[in-house]
Design brief:
Layout (H helix, E strand, L loop, with lengths): L1 E4 L6 H10 L4 E4 L2 H5 L3 E4 L5 H10 L2 H10 L4 E4 L1 H4 L19 E5 L10 E6 L1 E2 L14 E6 L1 E5 L5 E6 L3 E8 L2 E4 L7 H12 L10
Parallel strand pairs: 1-2, 1-3, 3-4, 4-12
Antiparallel strand pairs: 5-9, 6-8, 7-10, 10-11, 11-12
Length: 209
Amino acid sequence: MIAILDYDAGNIKSVEKALNYLGEEARITRDRDEIMASEKVILPGVGSFGDAMGKLRDYQLDKVIYDVVDKKVPFLGICLGLQLLYESSDETSGVTGLGLLKGTINRIPDAPGLKIPHMGWNSLDVKEDATLFEGLPENPYVYFVHSYYLKAMNESEVAATTYYSTLIHASVEKDNIYACQFHPEKSGTVGLKILENFVSLPSPIKEDC
């Protein structure tokens, strides 16, 4: 089973729908025991960094996330879910993120002819050995909706980049942590393949037969 963390963020149901389309059992939940028994865990979301961290802490899901990561269960952050993995964001001064990865979440710089938020399809430059992008073409197109972007501290963790006013670290991979700034659940067959690659990862949690 795949747990989709329920912290009142937007766009969670579309992730569940995409996983169901792939034939996967997915459950939107904030129940600790259910999450810890899941083979994979996903933190999706659209919304504000500060509000989201407040909700994660209110529901004590921050502690659950740390335990999931420590247990080496494959963990995927999507859009806001990527940003929350870092220490802070320009969007909400003074609010501390999960701090699982090192880097800064910055506002996309204004540029002539470009609208913010960035909403639309962009091609990715994908690192050759990136796990989530296995079996995809060299420069796949994916769908973005965001006003803030990641600049990762460790280039070795960056799996894919794109350019929109500035260089954007669009996907990262470190140990059992995976994250995408774009929305795989809204990215057609490319996005479904990314989700399929994630759910195919080995997990220390085994379902009862």
